[in-house]
Every structure is written in structure tokens, then in C-alpha cells.
Amino acid sequence: MRMSTTAIVTRNLDWSDAATSEPYEAGWAETALIFVRALRPAVGKPGRAHVEISPDGMRWVREGTSFDLPAERDAITFARVSQFGNWLRLACDFEEGSSVRVLVTLHLKS
Amino acid sequence: MPPNPRIGSHDHATLSRFDPLSRIICLDDFDRGFCGWTQLVGNYEDDLDAMLPGYAQHSSPMLSTIGNWDSGSHGGVDGDYVLKIATPPRAGAQNVAIKRLTFRQPGPIRLEAYVTFKPEASELRLSETDIRSFGFLFDLQGSDQAGPGSERVMPHVRFLNASDGKHVQKWQFKRQAVPIVPIGTDNKTISHYHLAPDGWEDLEGGEQRLCYNEIPTKINWHYLRFDFDLAAMQCTHFQCNDRVFDVSGFDSLRIPAMKNLWCMLNIAFFAETDTDKRAFLYLDSVCLSGDF
User: Fold this and answer.
1) Is A25 in contact with B122 (Cβ distance < 8 A)?
2) Mutant choice from B32, B43, B60, B73 vs A, greatest count of A C-beta within 10 A
3) Per-residue pLDDT reduced to its tens digit, B39-98
4) Fewer CB within 10 Å of terminal CB in chain B, N or C?
5) What is the mean pLDDT of residues A2-30?
6) What confidence category does residue B5 fall into, taking pLDDT thresholds of 50, 70 and 90?
7) CATH number at residue B18
8) Range of the domain at B46
9) By the 8 A CB rule, do B83 and B37 touch?
10) What does the angle CA A32 – CA A35 – CA A38 come to, to the nearest 5 degrees?
11) How many domains does chain B have?
């Protein structure tokens, strides 16, 4: 049986500026689906999310996948990634004064 | 099909590292996956804002090969993967992984585990005082047939590694209850952050210098054993590596039984950082056994 798991990496935090999720190790997984759910309506302009990878969990580079963060309450946006090595996180950028409260979940499958 | 002798020998070798009681309740080798270990999420009702801050900081455990920037993957005792509990990079931050069971007989149980700890290797120095503590706890409640004196009993053990930069290195326990906070408006849920920094007491003779290898990317595994009697709700043995500690002064956090937690048998491991650096607690394997 293939292995899979759901990991909650950010819960009920306001993301603004250049916030990131905590690093997550997923070297056993072949694919990852990253969902971001807005728990409240966004303030200001919607932000943009970027998948980041890392050789060591401390130094990060953009993987190349980016997507808009959700703006309406309970709206969900997502990205699919593969061949990410071991480390994954989501980074974002917002215009000054903009933010959104998020639930970020990783869905990993071997 | 004949049994695979390699699988059999591996299982035997895994179990041989433990001294279990007569029945294995679970033998969790994280080379097999998460084995039912998940994050300890706080209680809430209607709104996640109701979650106490201590719980709000928790996140999901992960499967790690203990990959290091300078030396690559360290691996576990006998395989590639271990369970990793990582705190946020904020002094005093904690994280907890939990496994939730119930018990079928109130008698002796034994928790054994191979664990190690290290801070994130973000500096080229030993960093031996960057982790404040790691430890484990049970969350237990007697049977619904146990009568009016039934309690929720929570034995806590931690290794206080460092405090405000001082390398303390001693085992502690906690029996002092923390404030219970009602959650929501339906009178069905409460919360209490029992891992709050207050109320820890020194275990008699509990000083121990553990193997903390010479740079932040080298780890060594430690054996833990904790015996508890679910009938008497008392600790009967605590051991780390070669040291067996006197538990005659040990007691647990005790609060009145709750109306929906009968026969609860939860086990949790936790990590706590003393600096603005992530603390990592790694579990190679956990064995819970019982005498029934």
C-alpha cells in the first residue's frame, strides 16, 4: 500500500509581508499537494504563495511553483509539486498592509 | 508462501532492543511510517481562537532521516526514518506528538523508546544549551466503572537540559495541576496547558549527563523506560540508559475524571527550545507493553 499523510504546518496564523510555513521533511514522498484555506476574509490585496525547497531545512530557494493565496473566507487555493527532495515549505509575499489568516496543509504520498 | 525470514529477523531484532511486558500493545518503528503518532491539537469550540496559545503553536510531526547540511542523513537505530518533533524558532516554544489509545485492563504498562535531541544546526558551535527540555507524558483516566473517586492522571517526565543558557541536565516530574479553562459555551469542553513551564519538580537523584555528541549534527540514541501501574495510578520504574532512578517521590498531575475520557491511554513526547532556535526531538522507535 502506498503511504500518505496530511500534515498541518500552519494553523490560524495571520500571514503578511514575507511569512513562511515551518519547514517540513517529506523525503519519503513522491508527490505533495499544498492547500491554503483562508479562515477569514483577506485584508487588502490577496497575497502570492511560492513553494520553496531546501538542501538543509535552513537555506531556501524557490521551486518555481507559485499561486495566489485565497481571499474569501473558506476559499482554498493549492499547488501540486513533485521531485522536491526532502524539505518543503510555503513562502508568501503581500503588499504592505495586506494579510490573510490561513490554514496550510501538506498532503504527501509515496 | 513461506514467511520471509528477513522480515522475521528484523522484527525480532527490533523487539530485542526492548524489555516488554507480556503483551505488546504497540511497537512503533518509524521506518514503517507515522504509526499513529500525530500532533497534539488544542481544544476549541466555534473558533480556533479559543485554543490556548500553548497548543496553538503545535504542528505535525514528520518522518525524518535526520539530514544534516554537513554530513547528510544520519538515520535511525536500524533504519532510515525516525519521527521528528520540531518546535518553532522562539525561546520557550514547544511541540508535542501524541498517540491516542484506550486500555483494556487497568494493570502494569511499560513505555520504552529510543530517542535523541538536537537543536537546529544553524550555528557552527556545539549548541548544547539551546534545547530547554524534552520529555514524555501519559494522559490516563480510569474506567467508567471505577467509581466516584476516578481521576484523570497525567504522569509527566522531562529532561531539563538547559535553562536560560545554563546546562542543567536533570530529570523532573510534574504533579501541580494547571488552571482549567472552559472552552466555548456548551459546557462540554475544557482545556489546560499542562506543559506550561511552571510546577516542575526535581526527581530525587535525577541529575544525568547524557551523550551529547561533539558538533550539532552528530546524535546518539538514548534508551528510556517508564513503568506505570494503571490500577494504582503510580509510576513504578524510570530508567534512562544505564541509570535507574528512585521514583518513590514521583507523582502525577491529577484532576477529577472527565465525563468522556474513560479508559483513556494517551502517550505524548515533547520538545522545548531555550533559544530562538528550533529544538528537535527524534524518536527512533517506541514500544508500549502491558501485563495482561
Assistant:
1) no
2) B60
3) 999 889 888 988 999 999 999 999 999 999 999 999 999 999 999 999 999 999 999 999
4) N
5) 97
6) very low
7) 2.60.120.200
8) 5-290
9) yes
10) 165
11) 1
